[in-house]
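== Polypeptide entry ==
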Amino acid sequence: EERLEKLMKELDAKKKESREALYQNDLAQDKVEELEKELETKEGMLDQLEKEQQSVKEKYEGRIDRMRDEVKNSKEEHKKEIDEILEENEGMKKELEEEMSQKRSAEYRV
């Protein structure tokens, strides 16, 4: 009977130990689930931020490309205008030289 009591006490102790282990396991499992949900949420946030970053990048790259094109076109237009002005200036210079030459010729004749 003493031996039976001793075995019963050991059995009770093992049951308590087993319950405590199950409780600790449940706590650990709850923590794992909580961390998995948190990870999933943060991954979703990260994906969203990466999409937003890509969108902003594309938006600004598009603007930069358009501005470069505008600058290039403007530069070409200005060069064309300057070339036209220089051409006109050359023409006027030639006319002036002809006028001066005619004036000199007229003065020599007088």
Notes: The mean pLDDT is 95.
